[in-house]
């Protein structure tokens, strides 16, 4: 289809012998497909991610749109182990009591007060003997 397609990057007609099709309806000149954030060329050697019609390299897409740790606000890598409390996600090393700094481990009782994790010693026993894993603090 060279000559008929319009480049999603520059808007010009693609008359080159080659074009890059990123999704079913987005086509690019080979030279125009670059990360919208850092300008890195995105070709068959670099993974491309799309958001709102813009292309991003993996690093910038993760940094801008990926899930971030509720404590340190850093993005997660694919090899990171995580802990979850309700809709918050934490690096293992960030999953700590806000009062005493003790790292919370799987099976530990804790509560979540707004954004702060509190170990059982710092929030007290659960009300009426209910399990305190991830529950609102009394």
UniProtKB/TrEMBL annotation:
<dbReference type="GO" id="GO:0048665">
    <property type="term" value="P:neuron fate specification"/>
</dbReference>
<dbReference type="GO" id="GO:0045944">
    <property type="term" value="P:positive regulation of transcription by RNA polymerase II"/>
</dbReference>
<dbReference type="Pfam" id="PF00412">
    <property type="entry name" value="LIM"/>
</dbReference>
<dbReference type="GO" id="GO:0000981">
    <property type="term" value="F:DNA-binding transcription factor activity, RNA polymerase II-specific"/>
</dbReference>
<dbReference type="GO" id="GO:0046872">
    <property type="term" value="F:metal ion binding"/>
</dbReference>
<keyword id="KW-0862">Zinc</keyword>
<dbReference type="InterPro" id="IPR001781">
    <property type="entry name" value="Znf_LIM"/>
</dbReference>
<dbReference type="InterPro" id="IPR047169">
    <property type="entry name" value="ISL1/2-like"/>
</dbReference>
<keyword id="KW-0217">Developmental protein</keyword>
<dbReference type="GO" id="GO:0000987">
    <property type="term" value="F:cis-regulatory region sequence-specific DNA binding"/>
</dbReference>
<feature type="domain" description="LIM zinc-binding">
    <location>
        <begin position="68"/>
        <end position="129"/>
    </location>
</feature>
<keyword id="KW-0440">LIM domain</keyword>
<dbReference type="GO" id="GO:0007409">
    <property type="term" value="P:axonogenesis"/>
</dbReference>
<feature type="domain" description="LIM zinc-binding">
    <location>
        <begin position="5"/>
        <end position="67"/>
    </location>
</feature>
<dbReference type="InterPro" id="IPR047244">
    <property type="entry name" value="ISL1/2-like_LIM1"/>
</dbReference>
<keyword id="KW-0479">Metal-binding</keyword>
<protein>
    <submittedName>
        <fullName>ISL2 protein</fullName>
    </submittedName>
</protein>
<dbReference type="GO" id="GO:0005634">
    <property type="term" value="C:nucleus"/>
</dbReference>
